């Protein structure tokens, strides 16, 4: 094993996911328990084997109901875990739980780390609280959001809409091209029994949908759900003890470069995914051409466009042409994309769903939606704006 | 007909939250009281910076102070919001990122007012106006 990039010594030993729904009759902690039990069973491990827990962003229930209702200590207490190492915190990249877990097993702080991401946003909305809306209902707002919220820019849809408008003007991407991210996700979701939206969606449906914040329409935005996803990250040495087919980390990264808020970037169409892409390929001998399946963050369809460029699947400003017609990113295209339906159709599992799907595809366990050409290398990206992480997973 | 000398009153689409004033940001949010927009500028290397900080990120000098800008800017990105995020919102409104003339990358997220929302385009020239609410002067922009 290499000693230079130590994440290569980390594997995904097990994955599990709760029900995914718009209003489930289960608490965040119950959903987390469901996902954890499923991941343990998948790995062939027990709670006694888990000696580390990592999550992001940690419990945020007081600030943003439903956004992150379960803390590391909640699941530790609930399942009687005894931990040598644990970590969660909001001042870190969206992929930080996974990155930290890789570092923890690589440095011997833990052997088997449970990572989880739990959201109850659908239930929170039903109770009248929208966690994705910043500052609503408050009279005064401090910190970094003071530069957006007073101008009624309440939602990430506004912030991403701004970048998308600039990109479309600068590079000529059309709404018809952008639509392919959404339409591809919807077609893939039709093969995923857990997906939220599975009705056929046509280009006309997309173009006629109501605008949220131009140029982003309803179908450019992902779906808030209740769900928990668990990923168990272990040292590669433990592979012989596992029930599952191990999937190894080839590279992982979560940099913080450029300006902290998207509106202060000198170039308004650049984001932290670009340094993430640069770092990622520096940590491996693989190249973008080696990637068999891509699970790229689609909290908004436009973020996936930027990730395609940031990870080098096409050149800067070329993503519109790359996705035109949808063939290249379809199940039988050169780069199958978001094969479970993404967050656009399968629900906002907030990054972890992409790891879950990448693992199933690499193992050949994705059921009806398993790609006919068995993938060996998967790219996973999480985030947008200043929050960006990327990983390469391989089946050795 | 209104008096030609009457100053038009510009407002955001919705009341919405106001910034919480502190030692660092107060100069910015009250700057419009005399009709002038100000940003922090480094007295050593002349770099304009925003949001306000305690140090210049370019030269690490601490000789920084608010300085008036022309108030002229160019629309760098624009989105028309159609979603009613809060009760009472009925009409689409324009959110934009404008780049101040003083320095590439000196940006503000703001609203473009005094124009049909669908008419705002990237590259358009705009100038600052202020909406005064309580102890805050919010910098909004209108077409030049």
Q: What this model shows, in words?
A:
The complex is a heterodimer of chains A (396) and B (144). With 396 residues, chain A is an alpha/beta fold. Chain A has a single domain (6-129, 154-394), classed as 3-Layer(aba) Sandwich (Peroxisomal Thiolase, Chain A, domain 1), CATH 3.40.47. Helix content of chain A is 30%, strand content 17%. Chain A has twelve helices and twelve strands. Chain A has helices at 28-43, 72-79, 96-106, 121-126, 156-171, 175-189, 203-208, 273-282, 301-310, 319-323, 342-346, 352-363, and strands at 10-17, 52-55, 85-88, 112-120, 140-141, 211-213, 216-217, 226-235, 247-253, 293-296, 377-384, 387-394. A nine-stranded mixed beta sheet of chain A has the order 3-2-4-8-1-9-12-11-10, with helices on both faces. Chain A has a two-stranded antiparallel sheet with strand order 6-7. In chain A, a hairpin with a 2-residue loop joins strand 6 (211-213) and strand 7 (216-217). In chain A, helix 6 (175-189) packs across helix 9 and helix 8 (273-282) packs parallel to helix 9 (301-310). The longest helix of chain A has 16 residues, at 28-43. Chain A is globular and about 55 Å long. The two termini of chain A are 13 Å apart. Helix content of chain B is 3%, strand content 38%. Chain B is mostly beta strands. In chain B, the strands form two sheets. In chain B, strands 7-6-5-8-9 form a five-stranded antiparallel beta sheet, with no helix packed on it. A three-stranded antiparallel beta sheet of chain B has the order 3-2-4, with no helix packed on it. In chain B, a hairpin with a 2-residue loop joins strand 8 and strand 9 (136-143). Chain B has one domain (26-143). The radius of gyration of chain B is 16 Å and the shape is globular. Chain B has one helix at residues 26-30, and strands at residues 18-19, 38-42, 48-49, 64-68, 72-81, 93-100, 107-111, 125-133, 136-143. Chain B has one helix and nine strands, in the order βαββββββββ. The A-B interface holds A 130, 133, 135-142, 144, 146-155, 157-158, 161-166, 169, 210-216, 263-266, 268 and B 12-14, 16-20, 22, 25, 50-51, 76-83, 85-86, 93, 95-97, 104-105, 107-111, 122, 136, 138, 140.
């Amino acid at each position: 094993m290499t000693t230079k990039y130590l994440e290569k010594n980390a594997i995904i030993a097990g994955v599990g996911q709760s029900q995914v729904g718009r209003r489930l009759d289960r608490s965040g902690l119950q959903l987390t328990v469901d996902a954890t039990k499923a991941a343990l069973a998948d790995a062939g491990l027990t709670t006694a084997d888990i000696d580390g827990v990592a999550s992001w962003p940690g419990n945020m229930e007081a600030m943003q109901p439903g956004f992150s209702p379960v803390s590391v200590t909640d699941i530790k207490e609930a399942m009687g875990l005894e931990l040598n190492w644990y970590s969660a915190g909001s001042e870190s990249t969206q992929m930080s739980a996974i990155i930290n877990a890789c570092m923890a097993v690589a440095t011997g702080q833990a052997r088997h780390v449970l990572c989880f991401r739990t959201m109850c946003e659908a239930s929170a909305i039903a109770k009248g609280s929208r966690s994705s809306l910043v500052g609503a209902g408050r009279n005064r707002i401090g910190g970094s959001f003071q530069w957006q919220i007073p101008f009624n820019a309440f939602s990430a849809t506004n912030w991403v809409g701004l970048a998308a408008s600039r990109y479309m003007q600068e590079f000529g991407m059309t709404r018809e091209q952008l639509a392919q991210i959404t339409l591809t996700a919807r077609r893939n979701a039709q093969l995923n029994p857990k997906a939220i939206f599975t009705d056929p969606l046509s280009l006309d449906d997309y173009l006629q949908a109501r605008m949220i914040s131009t140029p982003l329409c309803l179908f450019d935005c992902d779906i808030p759900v209740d769900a928990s996803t668990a990923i168990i990250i272990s040292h590669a040495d433990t592979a012989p003890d596992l029930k599952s087919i191990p999937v190894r980390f080839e590279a992982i990264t979560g940099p913080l470069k450029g300006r902290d808020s998207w509106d202060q970037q000198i170039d308004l169409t650049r984001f932290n995914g670009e340094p993430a892409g640069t770092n990622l390929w520096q940590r491996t001998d693989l190249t973008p051409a080696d990637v068999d399946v891509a699970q790229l963050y689609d909290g908004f369809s436009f973020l996936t466009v930027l990730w395609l460029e940031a990870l080098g699947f096409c050149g800067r400003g070329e993503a519109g042409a790359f996705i035109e017609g949808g063939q290249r990113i379809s199940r039988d295209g050169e780069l199958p994309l978001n094969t479970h339906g993404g967050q656009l159709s399968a629900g906002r599992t907030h990054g972890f769903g992409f790891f879950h799907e990448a693992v199933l595809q690499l193992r050949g366990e994705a059921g009806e939606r398993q790609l006919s050409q068995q993938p060996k290398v998967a790219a996973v990206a999480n985030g947008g704006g200043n929050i960006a992480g990327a990983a390469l997973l391989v089946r050795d | 007909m209104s008096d030609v000398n009457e100053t038009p009153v510009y407002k955001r689409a919705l009341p919405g939250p106001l910034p919480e004033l502190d030692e660092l940001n107060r100069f910015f949010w009250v700057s419009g009281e005399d009709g002038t927009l100000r940003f922090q500028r480094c007295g050593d290397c002349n770099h304009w910076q925003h949001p306000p900080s305690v140090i210049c990120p370019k030269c690490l000098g601490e000789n920084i102070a608010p300085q008036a800008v022309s108030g002229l800017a160019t629309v760098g990105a624009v989105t028309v919001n159609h979603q009613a995020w809060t009760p009472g919102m009925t009409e689409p409104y324009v959110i934009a990122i404008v780049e101040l003339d003083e320095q590439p990358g000196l940006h503000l997220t703001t609203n473009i007012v005094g124009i049909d929302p669908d008419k705002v385009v990237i590259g358009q020239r705009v100038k600052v106006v202020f909406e005064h609410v309580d102890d805050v002067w919010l910098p909004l922009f209108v077409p030049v």
